[in-house]
Design a protein that fits this description.
Helices cover 24% and strands 29% of the residues. With 249 residues, the chain is an alpha+beta fold. It folds into 2 domains: 50 residues; 195 residues, Sandwich (Jelly Rolls), CATH 2.60.120.430. The longest helix has 26 residues. The relative contact order is 0.23.
């Protein structure tokens, strides 16, 4: 009888400990929703300038990253602006894990590694989000982070993080100077434009003119929702403990 009581106490203690841990894991932590580490491909990241995978001066020798070489005197549109963005083709947008309904996905922030190889130009790195693909489209609303991370010339690799909160982003004008009327939550419900830009003022999603090479690696979109596999394992453990408790009654 005494041993049975001890077993019951053990299972009760284990159950509540696991429940507390699970609650913390499920509701008090952050999870990587999607990540681009550029191991094998550019993963649909692009920009106005020439971009490709490179291992030159990588964070870890031999591991590739996204490299963009920007010529300020390039004659084509966007060739002279520091922009790293998601694709704009309508056939890709619907299935792109980096886009879509950020509210439903519980998206909280984005993190990345960045390097500025320019000899004389700093990068004031910011995040820009919209419910249209490009600032040249006047029917949507663009938001740009009010905070920025400075990467001085020849900065070396560093990290940057941006919270996706209305208090840390501002509505900005499009290419023609017009301001969209969508609220922050409305914009987040249908993200089609996702880009990192260099902007000293933060009043546009176009990006500053820039000349030099930049590198991006390990981009992570952070959510409050756990990945399905982790959620399933946690729930499975809770069910198992619950069943064991019943057997000892």
């Amino acid at each position: 009888m005494k041993s049975l009581i001890l077993i019951k106490r053990f299972y009760s203690s284990a159950f509540f400990s696991l429940l507390a841990c699970s609650s913390s894991c499920l509701f008090g932590s952050s999870f990587t929703w999607v990540e681009s580490d550029f191991t094998l491909q550019t993963d649909d990241w692009g920009g106005g300038a020439d971009h490709f995978l490179s291992t030159q001066d990588a964070i870890d020798p031999g591991n590739s990253y996204f490299r963009e070489e920007i010529n300020m005197f390039g004659g084509e549109t966007n060739k002279n602006r520091m922009v790293v963005r998601r694709p704009v083709a309508s056939t890709v947008i619907g299935s792109d894990p980096w886009l879509g309904n950020f509210n439903a996905k519980g998206i909280q922030s984005v993190e990345l590694n960045f390097n500025n190889w320019s000899a004389d130009e700093p990068v004031y790195l910011r995040l820009a989000l919209s419910n249209v693909t490009k600032p040249m489209i006047s029917s949507g609303t663009w938001w740009v982070s009010t905070t920025y991370v400075t990467f001085l010339p020849e900065s070396g690799w560093g990290s940057a993080s941006f919270n996706i909160l209305e208090t840390e982003m501002q509505r900005v004008g499009d290419f023609n100077g017009g301001f969209g009327q969508d609220s922050f939550l409305e914009t987040l419900s249908d993200i089609k434009g996702f880009r990192f830009i260099a902007s000293s003022t933060g009043n546009s999603a176009l990006g500053d003119e820039f000349s030099g090479a930049i590198g991006v690696d390990n981009i992570r979109l952070i959510s409050s929702i756990p990945e399905p596999s982790r959620f399933a394992v946690t729930m499975g453990l809770l069910v198992t403990i619950s069943l064991l408790r019943r057997r000892t009654r």
